[in-house]
Amino acid sequence: MSPSSDAKTTPKITAQVVAKVAHLARLDLTEAELALMTTQLTGMLDHFGDIDKLDLSAVTPMAQPFPIKNVYREDVVVPGLDRQEVLDNAPAPQDGRFRVPPSNGSES
Amino acid sequence: MTSEFVSVVDIVGSIREGKTTASAVLEQHLDRIDMRETEIHAFNHVMAESARANAASIDADLKAGKERGPLAGVPIALKDNMCTRGVPTTCSSKILEGWKPPYDATVATRLQQAGAVIVGKTNLDEFAMGSSTENSAFGPTRNPLDTSRVPGGSSGGSAAAVAAGFAAASLGSDTGGSIRQPAALCGVVGVKPTYGMVSRQGLVAFASSLDQIGPFTHTVADAALLMEVIGGHDPLDSTSLDQPVPSLTAVLGQGVKGMRIGRLADMPDGCEPEVLARLDAAFAALKAAGATIVDIALPSLSYCLTAYYLVAPAEASSNLARYDGVRYGLRVESADLISMYGATRAAGFGAEVKRRIMLGTYALSAGYYDAYYGKALKVRRLIANDFAAAYQSCDVILTPTSPTVAFPIGEKTSDPLTMYLCDIFTIPTNLAGHAAMSVPFGTGAHSMPVGVQILAPALGEPTMFRVAAELERAS
Questions:
Q1: How far A82 CA lies from chain B's nearest CA (Å)?
Q2: Residue ranges of region Disordered (chain A) (predicted)?
Q3: Which residue range forms the structural domain that includes residue B96?
Q4: Which of B17, B124, B202, B226 has the fewest CB atoms within 10 Å, i.e. the most exposed one?
Q5: Is 0.90 topped by the overall pTM?
């Protein structure tokens, strides 16, 4: 599975791959969801194999409609968001900050 | 005019001439909401109280001789993925239920500065992912013209709100057809502007290189007026085009004499015969008005679906990473951070959103990036090249907006791919970053409306609106 510029699509997607992707996406899927997702992703990726027949070797990728350069603004102070209004939306604000569960001991 | 309802232009004129007031106009729309909203479910949130206060303030100002802008007193609805300060903005997702943005989207600010009265936030497919508004966490929206059918999507609530007379106009967002397809299915006008013409600041991101905000209206002139209000450069959106919106209201009467209208030589399969008949009638109307019909080819058209359904989910999987239960929205408490993320996102996202996050994460992951996302970006270039070649010989291209009229609720929910095929004619525009709009042009099967789509190159809005106005005159 090493990246290669002329890699073909339609590598077989397995339940193990789907579980790995779910972890990367930080989605806890149930066994039933994993099974359904495996079937549905397989169906879609089969369909998406239609672009395999195109010769794309000389085509430049297009990530944006128009060429975009960095856009800067003048380096002047402007008002930011209201701190309390922002914190009021947080599930667990504490002392003007966002409280989160410990990251210690969890997997990377 | 697509229905019995009064246009934005007429509302503005009547209020200005003192024949009616902003408050009276608003009450007419709120009355219709009272009568039919339970059945239609166009809104996630009706803002009756603030709308009444705004309308009263506009009436007071106008009475005092103050200018209140080109949309003074016009009731307008916003898709519920556009931020409104202090007013819930949910994206029809449980993960944002209860969130009150601390700022306004640029389009909301511009509408309010122009005197519009925001009446509510409309339902959508969760995070704008869908073509029927059945993927909302708060239940589907129904088509006002036949409530057993979908309004299209993802901006189905915005289309239905205009079609039902709940608002004189509305805004939606279009990532792969989410304005044009519901406009077609509900019999109203819908515009997807050139990428960068309307600010995305405050639009909750789905696929940032494809998303664009645009209006739903009853008339082409109304759409032109709204475009002039919401369009134009915004320093808060780094992809905003640094130029003014061309005048659109001024060109509507210019006709299509001498214009070259492109027709697809190879029409994709799957179109209803009545839809194709209306398209033929549209070509005939433009020809009768002095335009020339030119056959063109878009050889990569059939690959657009694949390119779109790899690029859009890839961008979505990155954009939706922000919903982590830390700064806003839902949190499902858990012993450690990683499991809190996973549990929160599992509980907060619906099935279609999870499917697209998975597809996008897969397409971007190590070992698959080149095979999927990388290839999709190259196919995107091919379709842009196809358009560039086609526009050598024509000024605009006419296609159906949707291959079918509005379909029954539940008909396509079991198979995601079938639903994705609804977008075959609308997707290419977003991939290229061009302009397009849907104009109602008669009815098809089951007496449901058919929309004709006008495709134009980037910044081709003036030409596009001239064609739209001609089709409106002929319909």
A1: 7
A2: 85-108
A3: 8-251
A4: B17
A5: yes
- For residue A18, the enclosing domain spans 9-52
Residue B460 inside a domain? The answer is no
Q: Calculate how close chain B gets to A25, using CA atoms only, in Å.
A: 6
Characterize the bridge pairing of strands B396-400 and B260-264: parallel
In 3D, which of B274, B201, B289 has the Cα closest to residue B471?
B289
A94 in any annotated domain? no
Digit-coded pLDDT (tens) for A32-59? 999 999 999 999 999 999 999 999 999 9
Residue B154 falls in the annotated catalytic set? yes
Q: How many domains does chain B have?
A: 1
Residue B190 located in a structural domain: yes
Read off the CATH number of the domain in which B23 is found. 3.90.1300.10
Percent of residues in chain A assigned helix, strand, coil, to nearest 5: 35, 5, 60
ipTM: 0.91
Which pLDDT belongs to residue B1? Answer: 40
Can you tell me the distance from the alpha carbon of B329 to that of B343, in angstroms, rounded to the nearest whole number? 13
Return residues 12-71 of A near B (CB < 8 Å): 13, 17-18, 21-29, 33, 37, 40-41, 43-45, 47-48, 50-51, 54, 56, 59-66, 68, 71
Q: Is B178 considered catalytic here? A: yes
Q: In chain B, what residues touch A81 (CB-CB under 8 Å)?
A: 102-103
